[in-house]
Design a protein that fits this description.
By secondary structure, the chain is an alpha+beta fold. The protein contains three helices and five strands; from the N terminus they run ααβββαββ. The chain has a five-stranded antiparallel β-sheet. This is GREB1 protein.
C-alpha cells in the first residue's frame, strides 16, 4: 500500500506506444528525400558524387512511399541483405547515412527515421530497400538489380 501512495504522488511516464515512430529531435530536417541533418539522399541529386562506402557495405536504393519517383541512397552492411536467391541475410540491420555520414544504425526503424523514410508497415520493413546501386561506365550511380527478398 505504501508503494501505491508513492506512485500516486510521482508523475509516472505512460507506457510506450508500440509501432510508432519517435518524433525527430528539435531542429531536425523532416523533409522527404533528406536525412535529419538536411542532406539530400535522392539518387537523382547525388548520382555523380563520390560516396565513401566502408568495406563490407553496399549502396542500395530505398523506395519511399512519399516519393514514388525517387530512390533514397543508403549504405547497408551486405551481411543483412539477401543473396541472389533471397536467402542467407542475417537477421537485424546495420547501416550508415550517406548524407551526413552518421554511422552505426543497428535498427532499420531508427535508420528509416533518420532518413525520413515514412514507413506505413511494420513487418518486413527492410523490404523498402529495393535496388542495389551500381556505377555505370560514366561513373554515375544508377539503379541496379532488384534486391530479392523472400518470405
Amino acid at each position: 500500500e505504501e508503494e501505491e501512495e508513492e506512485e500516486e504522488g510521482s508523475e509516472s511516464s505512460s507506457p510506450p506506444v508500440l509501432y510508432q515512430m519517435k518524433p525527430p529531435p528539435e531542429g531536425c530536417c523532416t523533409t522527404d528525400g533528406f536525412c535529419q541533418a538536411g542532406k539530400d539522399l535522392r539518387l537523382v541529386s547525388i548520382s555523380n558524387e563520390h560516396i565513401e562506402v566502408p568495406s563490407g557495405f553496399l549502396l542500395v536504393g530505398a523506395k519511399s512511399p512519399n516519393l514514388p519517383d525517387h530512390l533514397l541512397v543508403c549504405a547497408v552492411d551486405k551481411r543483412f541483405l539477401p543473396d541472389d536467391n533471397g536467402r542467407n541475410a542475417l537477421l537485424g540491420f546495420s547501416g550508415n547515412c550517406v548524407g551526413c555520414g552518421k554511422k552505426g544504425f543497428c535498427y532499420f526503424t531508427e535508420f528509416s527515421n533518420h532518413i525520413n523514410l515514412k514507413l506505413t508497415t511494420q513487418p518486413k520493413k527492410q523490404k523498402h530497400l529495393k535496388y542495389y546501386l551500381v556505377r555505370n561506365a560514366q561513373g554515375t550511380l544508377t539503379k541496379g538489380s532488384v534486391i530479392c527478398w523472400k518470405g
